[in-house]
Design brief:
By secondary structure, this protein is an alpha/beta fold. The chain contains 7 helices and 6 strands. The radius of gyration is 17 Å and the shape is globular.
């Protein structure tokens, strides 16, 4: 309650669920989303639930956008105590090794990895200067360690996972915690699983975005996650 958070990819899926759950816990949010319709929709959902938030339309695939977003977050929120980096371009099954274009490769890495680095370092500098014991959470994927012939996606998420560990190691002395959520099959984002997938999962169902967000909020809280950093959950 009373803390501030920047959430990227806030308009859909896990990013949206994280925004809503952080708002319910009393955080004040800046919601970053490339799609203005989805961004304004989640802004309405947050405020309708009694939360406090602003929306900024941001395309992190554009070089320089991440740095501008960090500056905007500091300006709008005054202080930024939390970062949730959930933004990622759409993933298409046709973009296999032999088919994926260099432009699609670049966009995936720009949004996930380069923007994750720029946002993390920029906000870390702000947190250190302001004496904030901040928290950062990066949304990666099971395919950060398990290839599936979508090389742009798997390599971007694998890079994010090592970025989390580098940030955690460098920032721990300043009381800043950095962790990764690495979901498996989640019923969100247009994912269409085969009929047999749920049967292979011990709980017999796919995860929901709310399942993942609940763990994210717990890890970011000092109450439940105060000694957790550099973790791949």
């Amino acid at each position: 309650a009373g803390e501030t958070a920047l959430v990227t990819g806030a308009g859909s899926g896990i990013g949206r669920a994280m925004a809503l759950q952080l708002a319910r816990e009393g955080a004040r949010l800046l919601l970053a989303e490339v799609d203005p319709v989805r961004g304004n929709e989640v802004l309405g959902a947050v405020t309708a639930a009694g939360g406090s938030a602003e929306f900024v339309q941001t395309d992190l695939a554009v070089r320089g956008a991440a740095g501008r977003l960090a500056e905007d977050a500091i300006k709008r929120l005054g202080r930024v105590a939390m970062l949730v980096h959930s933004a990622s371009p759409p993933r298409h099954e046709k973009d296999t090794l032999m088919n994926v274009s260099e432009e699609t490769w670049d966009a995936m890495h720009e949004v996930n990895l380069r923007s994750g680095f720029v946002l993390g370092r920029s906000l870390a500098r702000h947190m250190i200067d302001a004496g904030i014991r901040g928290r950062m959470l990066y949304l990666t994927s099971l395919h950060s360690g398990s290839p599936r012939n979508l090389p742009h996606y798997s390599t971007a998420k694998a890079g994010m996972l090592m970025l989390v560990k580098e940030l955690a190691r460098a920032l721990g002395a300043h009381g800043i915690r950095v962790n990764a959520l690495t979901p498996g099959a989640v019923a969100a984002g247009g994912f269409k699983p085969g009929a047999d997938l749920a049967a292979k999962i011990p709980l017999g169902r796919l995860a929901t975005s709310d399942d993942i967000a609940a763990m994210g909020v717990a890890v970011m809280s000092d109450r439940y996650g105060g000694y957790v950093t550099g973790a791949d959950i």
